[in-house]
Design a protein that fits this description.
7 strands; globular; single chain; protein tyrosine phosphatase activity; 7 helices; alpha/beta
Length: 163
């Protein structure tokens, strides 16, 4: 029986496994200042087809498996909308969030794009969901039970697939 090749091996390796990050505290401060997702910044949920446990208000769902070929389109959309920061997240800040931030960051550098930055949400949505009411009030379709377990990522069914 042959070993299955991971989906991401079809694409170039990102230049880094530690791209720039944004803390949940900073993102929450932006929201409280009145910055608007989709106008001032873009938040991208990289989970596949679900939003288990909820999703950050104003985020778009772009499963990472379809991301790499869409980078030029995403860049064009951000540029025409004047979006300066793209924030990527999965359940944790490992895997998908870092991979997406690095891929888009690499693409931006290849285009000599200096007006847009690509960052990963530090600690992902799991960190956000466990940080208290001040944060969870910004999660749409929030399901507290999905995050309460000490092994919350297991309940979301996402941690093992966050590559």
């Amino acid at each position: 029986m042959s070993a299955q090749v991971p989906w991401y091996d079809a694409y170039p390796k990102p230049s880094t496994t530690t791209p720039p990050t944004i803390s949940r505290e900073t993102l929450l401060a932006w929201i409280k200042e009145g910055r608007t997702p989709g106008q001032d910044f873009l938040v991208v949920d990289l989970r596949r087809t679900d939003h288990t446990g909820g999703f950050l208000r104003g985020s778009v769902n772009l499963p990472i498996e379809s991301l790499y070929p869409a980078l030029p389109t995403l860049h064009a959309m951000c540029k025409s909308a004047g979006i300066k920061t793209v924030i990527w997240y999965c359940v944790t800040s490992r895997g998908r969030g870092n991979r997406a931030a690095a891929w888009f960051g690499d693409y931006l550098r290849e285009q000599n794009e200096t007006d847009i930055e690509s960052v990963s949400l530090l600690e992902g949505i799991l960190g956000w969901a466990l940080a208290g009411d001040e944060y969870t009030e910004h999660i749409d379709e929030f399901v507290p039970e999905a995050w309460k377990s000490s092994d919350a990522a297991k309940h979301t069914g996402q941690l093992s697939s966050c590559n």
